[in-house]
Amino acid sequence: MTEVQDDNPNPDFTKEVKKKKKTRFTYMIKLDYMFEEVQIFRMEVYDCDDKKHLNDLSKHDFIGLAEFVMGDLMTAKGQKLAIKLKGRDGKVVTHKSQQVPIIIRCEEIKNNNDEYRIKLSAKDLPKMDWFGKADPFLQWYRKAEDGGWMSVHKSEVIKNTYTPRWQEMYIPVRRLNNGDMKRPILIRCLDWNKKAEPAIIGEAETTLAALLESKELPLFRRDKKGDLKPDHKYGVLIIESQNLKKKYSFLEYITGGMEVNLIVAIDFTGSNGDPKDVKSLHYMGPPVAFSFF
Q: C2 domain location, by residue (predicted)?
């Protein structure tokens, strides 16, 4: 189950919600692809009406569903599928006479446990609302195999300010760029709206390799062709601190020469009884036949 995107008809889902109100950031659902098996997946989309009962789907409005075979997704161009949502009656869901698609991407996960940590603030953000200041937050994307952008991380919202300072972000490298230091990354600064889709303040496109050498990132907006226009800045992201933390796997420790000692202890206390007694918890005699009724 994903998170709920409030009042947004074009959501980029970034989180995965767990029970008991515990959440973790993710850009994907991890699974084992079995090429010799037919793995059929079904996704259902709902309009949330009661956040207190997220797991009770009967309390939400059903929008549509989509089914696909994992093998079709793996072999699709760019490993991307755009599937039309259908109602329970099998009819295609439409909005303003247009068919509604759900876009699904996949990618093989590389063995990389490194973690990127960064603390950002911003300055000179433009005025976004008639009343009050901006409510900025950051959404991170990585370049997908099909050339589109895949959402990988979302910061908290800092309300009513033009100079936000976000908490330090911890992003696994395999989520951010799947281990490719030169893979394009997009950082989008958005203005949160209570009852509307977030408005774009500005964007910065970079790579992790370039980001580690940077101290500031100017924010720009795109023209009608979709290209960033560097002629006018819409604020600046300030990198207060950042580092790339190497996290080794257990196998890397072993191949690096680490030795492991295993000690096993068995508690033979007197209260457990004589090991020769079949009733003892530590009975050491010949096998005993039991009858069950």
A: 96-221
